[in-house]
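Milestone 3.1: sequence recovery, worked example.
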């Protein structure tokens, strides 16, 4: 098998190099944008647009589930249904779920990395470089780390799930393949295929504390949480058995013969059985953890490899390499109930309880088949409650086994499996009910239960509220026991049985009310309650603005509190209650005013405010040209005067 393992490694690497050297368009992707890569750059997955689908079917469905999505690792695309890609260079192998962050970790054999899938989006969000030819992978719930078996590096890479970075590399035996975590002691168990032993890593220190010799070619490993034992499949050299390690002493306490070529192993805590896949004998061996003996052999597909347990439905999922499918085993009966077609060469398989999907690594089609699981089908029976005594259309309700249903018809039904269930009937005002509670036993048949309601007569009394003080026709209202009534008369009435009820009176503008609220007790007779409204008077005060400086009869205006008044006398008046009010004086051409605006506070007295208008004098300036004109006019006038004098002198002569 060592030779076969090496041949697989050589073939995988050769195919990668062939496509890189021959010039095919390849791309690497991770959590960031895509980039071209060369043969020396293998930090991400490889994408090629030449993907040929064999089948794409989202409708396959059976009692064990169906392939809801296919995640194509070549280009990180999510496709509805089962998509089978025939072009492969990545070779995904191991799958593990990290319950701390909800991510799925997939080992990529040819690229020496681990792809991280977000279970919420089912897309790859990171690619983490690890050792050479990573194979098995497991999550340690105690420290939150993911342990990856690097089969060609003889080491284990430790990934911190919080940061998705490698924090340690631990040397182990030769050809490590399987990994499992034992939460009872905090140890991680690693099968070393070529050195025929199991390395035990202390998860606290990340150091190897023991190496346990087992059979030839150990591969799969799983922990049984009921008995505390670790089960190791021995594949090579015709060992055909499972070594049982006591986790307390880290010693082999038993070797259990199984089928031919055991590979995968998983524990089902619902029945205490250990399931072992047998590569050559086309079957799954079922080991009872209580006796460490094989109690059944289940026929599955050809070359079964991976195996995982789904606690949501109690089914065991087995990958079949050559059959290109997943066999679904009902753990209650140990029968195969379904076969689900997936990609080529399915290997690793893991269940994600956060979304109830099963993830299958398809080694030969570079894709992850994501199976939506179906819960186990349970026969249910109808429990019918039929009431009598209620008026037609009356709503009634009941609770069975914590579920409440209501109806306005005479029946309420539930659908439940076999079992005994308690029930209670909801109360209906004015009625008693029999029975008001009880239990129902369902045992392979529908059940009917009669419910009787009996009318209970409850006397009602009148509560009258009588108001005084309001103007005739004024509307007022009362809220009594949560019900509000209004009236424009002086009375408001309610009808209620015995009891104590609170009330409140709504405010009416311009009035105060007494009492405004209170409580009334009805005890076998009608009740009257007087309500008094009293008018509320608001005092008003005069605000007088007196102007000076305006010519008699000049119009001027003042705006106070948004209201504008105008006058041709020297006063303008307003009336307002107590408060602070802003004012402004309108401008008049040729006059300045002081103050032009401000605020006035009224506080129990009249207010006077003086306003002064002042004439604005305008000075006219003259230019040098104006003076020249004046001089010329003066010279002309003088010359004219002289001419007149001379003329008069000549006449006298």
């Amino acid at each position: 098998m060592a030779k076969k393992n090496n041949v697989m490694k050589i073939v995988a690497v050769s195919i990668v190099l062939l496509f890189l050297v021959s010039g095919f368009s390849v791309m690497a992707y991770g959590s960031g944008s895509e980039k071209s890569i060369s043969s020396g750059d293998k930090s991400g997955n490889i994408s090629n647009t030449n993907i040929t689908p064999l089948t794409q079917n989202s409708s396959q469905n059976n009692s064990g589930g169906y392939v809801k999505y296919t995640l194509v690792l070549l280009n990180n695309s999510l496709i509805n249904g089962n998509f089978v890609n025939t072009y492969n260079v990545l070779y995904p192998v191991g799958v593990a779920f990290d319950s701390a962050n909800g991510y799925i970790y997939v080992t990529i054999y040819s690229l020496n990395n681990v792809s991280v899938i977000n279970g919420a989006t089912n897309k790859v969000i990171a690619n983490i470089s690890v050792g050479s030819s990573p194979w098995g992978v497991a999550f340690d719930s105690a420290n939150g780390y993911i342990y990856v078996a690097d089969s060609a590096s003889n080491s284990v890479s430790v990934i911190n799930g919080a940061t998705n970075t490698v924090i340690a590399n631990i040397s182990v035996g030769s050809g490590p393949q399987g990994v499992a975590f034992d939460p009872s002691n905090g140890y991680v168990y690693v099968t070393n295929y070529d050195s025929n032993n199991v390395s035990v890593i202390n998860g606290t220190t990340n150091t190897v504390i023991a190496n346990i010799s087992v059979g030839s070619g150990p591969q799969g490993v799983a922990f049984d949480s009921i008995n505390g034992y670790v089960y190791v499949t021995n594949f090579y050299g015709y060992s055909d058995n499972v070594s049982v390690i006591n986790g307390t002493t880290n010693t082999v306490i038993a070797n259990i013969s199984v089928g031919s070529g055991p590979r995968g192993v998983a524990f089902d805590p619902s029945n205490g059985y250990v399931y072992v896949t047998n590569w050559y004998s086309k079957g799954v061996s079922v080991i009872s953890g209580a006796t460490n003996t094989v109690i059944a052999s289940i026929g599955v597909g050809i070359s079964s490899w991976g195996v995982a347990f789904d606690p949501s439905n109690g089914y065991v999922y087995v990958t079949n390499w050559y059959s290109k499918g997943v066999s679904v085993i009902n753990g209650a009966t140990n029968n195969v109930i379904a076969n689900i077609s997936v990609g080529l060469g399915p290997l690793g398989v893991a269940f994600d309880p956060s979304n109830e999907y099963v993830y299958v690594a398809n080694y030969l089609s570079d894709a992850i088949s994501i199976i939506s699981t179906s819960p186990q089908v349970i026969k249910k029976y109808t429990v019918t409650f039929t009431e009598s005594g209620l008026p037609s259309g009356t709503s009634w309700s009941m609770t069975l086994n914590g579920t409440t249903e209501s109806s306005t018809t005479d029946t309420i039904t539930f659908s439940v499996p076999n079992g005994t269930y308690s029930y209670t009937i909801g109360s209906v005002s004015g009625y008693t009910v029999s029975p008001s509670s009880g239990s129902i036993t369902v045992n392979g048949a529908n059940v009917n239960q009669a419910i009787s309601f009996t009318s209970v007569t409850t006397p009602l009394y009148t509560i009258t509220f009588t108001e005084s003080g309001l103007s005739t026709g004024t509307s007022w209202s009362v809220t009594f026991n949560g019900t509000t009534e209004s009236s424009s008369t002086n009375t408001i009435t309610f009808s209620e049985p015995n009891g104590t009820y609170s009330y409140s009176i709504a405010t009416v503008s311009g009035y105060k009310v007494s009492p405004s609220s209170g409580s009334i007790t009805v005890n076998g007779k009608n009740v009257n309650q007087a309500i008094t409204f009293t008018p509320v008077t608001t005092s008003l005060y005069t605000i007088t603005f007196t102007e000076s400086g305006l010519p008699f009869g000049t119009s001027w205006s003042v705006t106070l509190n948004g209201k504008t008044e105008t006058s041709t006398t020297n006063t303008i008046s307003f009336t307002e209650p107590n408060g602070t009010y802003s004012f402004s004086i309108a401008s008049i051409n040729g006059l300045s005013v002081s103050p032009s605006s401000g605020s006035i506070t009224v506080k129990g007295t009249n207010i006077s405010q003086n306003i002064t208008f002042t004439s604005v004098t305008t000075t006219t300036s003259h230019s040098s040209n104006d003076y020249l004109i004046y001089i010329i006019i003066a010279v002309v006038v003088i010359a004219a005067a002289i001419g007149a004098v001379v003329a008069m002198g000549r006449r006298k002569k």
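Residues 541-615 form a domain with the Immunoglobulin-like fold (CATH 2.60.40.10). The chain has two helices and 58 strands.
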